[in-house]
Amino acid sequence: MTPNSKLTTNPIDASELSFDDFKTIVINDYKIAYESRQASLLGRKEVLTGKAKFGIFGDGKEIPQIAMAKAFKNGDWRSGYYRDQTFAFATGICTLKEFFAQLYANPSVEADPASAGRQMNCHFATRSLNEDGSWKDLTEMKNSSSDIAPTGGQMARLVGLAYASKLYRQNPDLSYLKNFSVNGNEVAFGTIGNASTSEGVFFEAINAAGVLQIPMAMSIWDDAYGISVPAKYQTTKEDISEILKGFQRDEDAAGYEIFKVRGWDYPALCETYQRAIDVCRTEHVPVLIHVTEVTQPQGHSTSGSHERYKDKDRLEWEREYDCNLQMRKWMLESAIITEEEITELEATAKKLVRETQREAWNEFLATIKVEKEEVIDMINRIANGNPAISKIASLLASTPDALRKEVVSSARKTLRLSINNPSPERDKLINWYNSQASLNEDRYNSKLFTDGIESPLLVKQVAPEYTEESKMVDGRELLNACFDANFARDERLVAFGEDLGAIGDVNQGFAGLQAKYGDLRITDTGIREMTIIGQGIGLALRGLKPIAEIQYLDYLLYALNILSDDLASLSYRTKAGQKAPVIIRTRGHRLEGVWHSGSPMSMILGSLRGLHICVPRNMTQAAGIYNTLFRSDEPALVIECLNGYRLKEKLPENVGEYTVPLGEAEIVRTGTDVTIVSYGATLRVVEEAAEELAQLGISVEIIDPQTLLPFDTKRICAESLKKTNKLLVVDEDVPGGGAAFILQQVLEAQNGYYHLDGQPRTLTAKAHRPPYGSDGDYFSKPSVDDIIETVYQIMHDNNASKYPSIF
After folding, report:
1. pLDDT number for residue 10
2. At what angle do helices 19-48 and 323-333 cross, to 10 degrees?
3. d(Cα 182, Cα 165) in Å, to the nearest integer?
4. pLDDT tens for residues 656-702?
5. Dihedral in degrees, nearest 10, Cα atoms 510, 514, 517, 523
6. Do 440 and 564 contact (CB within 8 A), yes or no?
7. The pLDDT of residue 558 is above 60
8. Longest dimension (CA), the chain
9. How far, in Å, CA of 509 to CA of 520, rounded?
């Protein structure tokens, strides 16, 4: 067996096996478990000796994960957390060498397919995509959604992964999607530590899966602690399956099938997992497997020692009931293996792990060593007797396992010290540095978006078409027509959210569509923002095109952890190995009151890089953006204007076909005196103000960016400033919020600063949320009066004699 080969478990059906075959399977299982333990022990040493930055391992969970792996089939999905390394080894999701490559942060997709060195160790993922962003055949793979470190964050997407099987099973119109499902027979496996079951997202997901009745198999590794905090502070009754008994299904009501098994009992674990997953797969119901009496031999992570918080009795119990030792004891007592044979197996496994670790470390350093030698040679040539520069080369040469940052930093320091001594040698180092900058951009900074063949930036632009007969309709009707046309066109589209189904959403954008397309495709959900988003992520990972609705923008806050930690970072943390083209539909901006008038754009812009942030000013633009997103494969947030649903707009004849390109700003009104950049509902207020400003002799140019991420890729704003030389940003976010982002983009990224002849200004909402009522809106958010007076003041500052002070 080579160090990087994949050794996977086999399911046990004792009734069909000879004793020799049974022995072979059991011995192989123990071998995987033992190798995994050695990887944990050696991994910890590599961190403590400084080769790796941090380590968190799956020791103590080996045997239950072996049992779980036996029930895991091609097409199935995992959504787990960072203790699942044995499961990853047993299923072939990760090899030993890939495990160590990730520990060392090797930035190569080939070395670390899960994350290309971007994630801490034990954060697993399989690559669902080809290099061009197209899908692989996921039914021929054992699939793992990309792990995240927040310990309950995997629960939300797990709901969606399991829900996809229900849709594939019950909707025959999806049968053509052969690469994603085989009649919905896949199971979504979830894992979590017992302490993390205290998190709200766990309970939200457990409840959602019970309501939806989906094939979700939830495993809880219970080692009685959450880092240093014992179960008595974590869980009522110190027993999660005990308090979840109300979810147990019976003949009168649907629910879960709940199992409980000890984590060191290999035969019972194999039997329990076979029974549990059979129920889950065949009956399409959720199951929960509570694995108790689990140990954690090395403590939580390399950041600390569990001897600090576990008493002597607990530590002694953990040593005795270590699952690997208990399986070893059982194998000897059952005559499956002799002491001599198992000792030899362990010695061989230990040697294999050590050899694999060394190979992974040497491969990690190989490219860096070449770069290091090149740089040392170039620095010495530049030095030419300069002791300060020679010292840089000497320090780098004396660092045996230099990292890339030390090599590049040495080059940069040399270039700074030699700035006054140009030479061909220095030019050579500059050229090397510039070429490395491009390589390092790819290694460490690329693929925030998939950028594949279905990128929204590649969608063909189609203009809306109108005729003399085109009707004026409410904005909500225009949106409804857009959704109707697209649901008829693409069976992959599904939509769900609070009040979305039966009543067609609170503003009637989906009115009548559930009756037309069925409640599998247009669905009501409970009040559960985190798992609404997770439902979307899981469906999108499995090839569907979900629209996940958050009823109001203010309530996006309740799903921000899932959006930010999981969805926004997915493409980046897998280096485009996975994609989840979820469209989050919501509504916000101006209305009434503290909880229904939100415009927290700075929160969104700061936490959701990796999503396209779309802010259409009306429903015509919103529909065009949706048409673009429905034809592409990257996630987006679309914020509709809450007070625009009953405003009249002309209905395009091609309402389901025309597209609005992402990142292309639009000049809504041309002018010569001041450039105003605004978006969403506030843009209409700016347009109204422009009329009175024209009467005052002030010509304003109004620019609608339409999307904030990406922002004005054709630099329309900077071009406008060349003409007007004055800038005002009008925004409903708090002072210094979204407006600050727009200023940074226009003044810095587009070099608009050089075209100004006066101070750029922002006009924003107040620092507080708006109070209820029309007066509350007027005195809290930018009004027509505010805009007129701010623009007038800009003109007064520029020419006081022509524009005397108003006040």
Report:
1. 62
2. 150
3. 9
4. 999 999 999 999 999 999 999 999 999 999 999 999 999 999 999 99
5. 100
6. no
7. yes
8. 103
9. 18
How far is Cα 167 from Cα 186, in angstroms, rounded to an integer? 11
Instruction: Tell me how far apart the alpha carbons of residues 435 and 164 are, in angstroms, rounded to a whole number.
Output: 44
Alpha-carbon span 390 to 402, nearest angstrom: 17
Identify whether the C-beta of residue 274 lies closer than 8 Å to the C-beta of residue 12.
Answer: yes
Q: pLDDT at position 445, please?
A: 98
Write the CB contacts of 517 (distance below 8 Å, at least 6 apart in sequence).
487
In this prediction, residues 381-388 reach a mean pLDDT of 93
E strand or H helix at 796, and its extent? Answer: helix 784-798
Pairing of strands 257-262, 229-230: unpaired
pTM surpassing 0.85? Answer: yes
Tokens 């694995």, located at residue: 291
Contact status, residue 179 vs residue 229, Cβ threshold 8 Å: no
**What does the H/E/C string look like for 508-550?**
CCCCCHHHHHCCCCEEECCCCHHHHHHHHHHHHHCCCEEEEEC
Q: In 3-state terms, what secondary structure has residue 173?
A: helix
- C-alpha atoms less than 13 angstroms from C-alpha of 670 in its C-beta half-sphere: 2
Q: Cα separation of 757 and 315, whole Å?
A: 72
553/467 Cα distance (integer angstroms):
35
Residue 596 is a catalytic residue = yes
CB 286 within 8 A of CB 42: no
Residues 6+ apart with CB under 8 A from 173: 491
Q: Express as a percent the part of the chain with pLDDT over 70.
A: 98
Tell me the pLDDT tens digit for each residue of 340-377.
999 999 999 999 999 999 999 999 999 999 999 999 99
List CB contacts of 251: < 8 A, sequence separation 6 or more: none
- Which residue out of 290, 589, 596, 612 is catalytically annotated? 596
pLDDT at position 596, please? 85
Secondary structure E strands in 420-486:
472-474
How is 719-734 classified by DSSP, letter by letter?
Answer: HHHHHH--EEEE-SS-
Angle between helices 62-70 and 323-333 (to 10 degrees): 70
Report the distance separating Cα 577 and Cα 515, nearest Å.
37
- Cα–Cα distances in angstroms (integers) from residue 575 to residues 510, 561, 729, in the given order: 35, 21, 35
Amino acid letter, 390: S
Q: What is the mean pLDDT of residues 326-333?
A: 98
494 pLDDT more than 80: yes
User: What type of residue is 693?
Assistant: L
Cα separation of 273 and 263, whole Å?
12
17: pLDDT strictly greater than 90:
no
Residues 195-207, mean pLDDT to the nearest whole number: 96
Structure tokens at 452: 């594949």
Tokens at residue 773, please?
A: 């009522």
Q: 394 vs 340, 368, 391, 543, CA distance in Å?
A: 52, 17, 5, 54
In angstroms, rounded to a whole number, what is the distance separating the alpha carbons of residues 559 and 200?
A: 11
Strand partners, 143: 77
Residue 115's nearest CA partner among 399, 341, 349, 444 is 444
Sequence-distant (6+) residues with CB within 8 A of 140 are 74, 75
With a CB cutoff of 8 Å and minimum separation 6, the contacts of 779 are: 766, 771
d(CA 103, CA 98): 9
For 599-614, give the secondary structure using H, E and C. Answer: CCHHHHHHHCECEEEE
What's 129-147 look like in SS3? ECCCCCECCHHHCCEECCC
Distances from the Cα of 287 to the Cα of 76, 84, 216, 291, angstroms: 15, 19, 6, 13
Q: How many Å apart are CA 451 and CA 439, to the nearest integer? A: 17
Residues in CB range of 422: below 8 A, 6 or more apart: none
